[in-house]
Amino acid sequence: MDSQIELEYDDIKGHADTKMVRFIGDLDATNVETVLEKICNLFNDGYINIIADFKKLRYVNSTGLGILLHFSKSAKEKNGSFKIANVNENVYEIIEIIGATTLLEIYDEVDEAVAALK
Amino acid sequence: MQELKIQKMPVELRPDLSMWKLEGELGPESIARIQAEFELVLDSKQNFLIAEMSGVTQVSSAAIGQLMGCRQLLSERGGDLVITGVSLDIKSKLSAMGATKIFKFYNELRSAINAYHWEVERKAEKVGLSFPPELQFVPPVRQMVSRIARQKGYSHRDSFRIETIVDEICNNAVEHGSEKVKKNIDLTVQINREKIELEVANASDPDKIENLRAVSSSLSKPPTADAGQRRGRGLALIKMLSNNLDINFSGEGTSVHVTKLREE
């Protein structure tokens, strides 16, 4: 009865080292390890930039937020980035309360996140 | 023409609540009758009136106007007049008269009485849940509590915050629970019009309790966004989202009590 979360992937034209990942569902303690493994696999496959589209991410808890911060840190260590776009207001409030708005790169739209790639 | 009948229905132990059962045609000729009965309601200081109208076969704008006047008077006294049981046909006519913008409508009498208990008496409803100490049970529990809050009129935003609080306190109960004593986690939800109170109790692991004590003693500081720390933000998040957080440690277990005032 784990929370349902699905990840969908897309390439970004002109950025071979970047993957767009659509998060669909709820990110919580029941599925956080699965998501961690999948994103780490992307890093291991050479994708140093990840753009996370949260348009269909309904919910995130403190554990989920923890791995988002981990992804951000890991990407920076590889000279890459972990960018987030389309955050709904409820999820944004949790990120804000934790104090992570300055640590995560958050954009209104995916296009803005893509434009910000080096 | 079917003359209007107004039958006063008994209400036990609710001195300020009155109920009418209306049957027949609510035509212009019924205005005097409505006014006479209403004066009895005012004299007895019953400021809340439920009009059960499943037996009403016709409505006129004049009679509805009279009921609107009654409602206005009760409203000025801090009360209300609500309507239950109208047929679809009558409801359609009332809508055309603008009455659906003035009155609250309930399908059944019981719903109107429950709404009175909820709104006026500030009666709390209590739900108890007991589930195995495993993470997989937490999502359906948190979603259920969120839906209860939503159904009780809490906003989407407030219900989301409540869902987050339930998630965090239940996850903590699972993670800090005893691995030797596999006792269910008990969650009690008490909700009324103004606040929700949540209590989680579990059997704790003595070794993990010390970690929990350390975290709870640091709750005066805001949650850390330290990217190097993957966990440990849950209790701090609960504290920021709620109005009161109490954690009690005993020899056998831990209980966490959270109060959150309704904000919107």
Count structural domains of chain A.
1
Rounded mean pLDDT score of chain B = 86
Number of extended strands of chain B: 10
DSSP helix fraction of chain A: 25-40%
Main beta sheet of chain A: 5 strands, mixed
Q: Span between N and C termini of chain B?
A: 48 Å
CATH class category label of chain A:
Alpha Beta
Helix vs. strand class of chain A? alpha/beta
**Greatest contact pair?**
A-B, 28 and 31 residues
The unreliable regions of chain B are: none
Number of DSSP helical runs of chain B: 8
Distance between the termini of chain A: 40 Å
Quick one: CATH superfamily of the largest domain in chain B?
Histidine kinase-like ATPase, C-terminal domain
Which regions of chain A contain 5 or more consecutive residues with pLDDT less than 50?
Answer: none
Count of DSSP strands of chain A:
5
| Pattern of helices and strands of chain B | EEHEHEHEHEHHEEHHEE
Q: Looking at the structure, what is the overall shape of chain B?
A: elongated
Read across the widest sheet of chain A, the strand sequence of neighbours is: 1-2-3-4-5
**What is the CATH architecture annotation of chain A?**
2-Layer Sandwich
